[in-house]
Amino acid sequence: MYSPVLSTMIAGAFRDHAPAPREFSLLNLKSGQSLTIRYKSIGCSHHYSYRFVFTAHEVVIYALDTPGKIGTPRKLGTHRLTDEERIRLDRLFVFYAGKTEGGCPTVDTIRFTKRDGTQRVRTTTYVDATGSTLNRREMLPLPNLAGRLLSKHPG
What we know:
The chain is α+β, with helices and mostly antiparallel strands. It has one domain. It has helices at 4-12, 83-97, 142-152; strands at residues 33-42, 47-54, 58-64, 74-80, 107-116, 119-128. The chain has a six-stranded antiparallel beta sheet with strand order 4-3-2-1-5-6, with helices on one face. The longest helix is centred in the middle third of the chain and has 15 residues, at 83-97. The chain is globular, with a radius of gyration of 15 Å.
């Protein structure tokens, strides 16, 4: 359950916390709400996509476009999120909501869909062509989050 006091205390524990846009903040998800993110990355030598289904304290991750099984999601598993991971993800979401133009040949498309129960509340799509999220310690890039489960369940 969301607690403004707890969220403020958690955020205070990490320097330079910038909250995600309220409607897409993991720290602000209430019981019964979820945030689904469809993440697609296309670059010179890669093409992959994932679906992340976040609830207040965990995420279920699916690999999409599995070779030989186009359109068939493959469940990678469930990951319990730490408070630090939720804050780092919120920072990533703030980054996406900002100006993300760039000249990198890798283009990431990120579609956020917030739900309250089964009711869709809002859907927004961001495009990031900066190539600057993977090496920033204050954020948790979505491919890195998926990689934690991929390393446990390869193939």
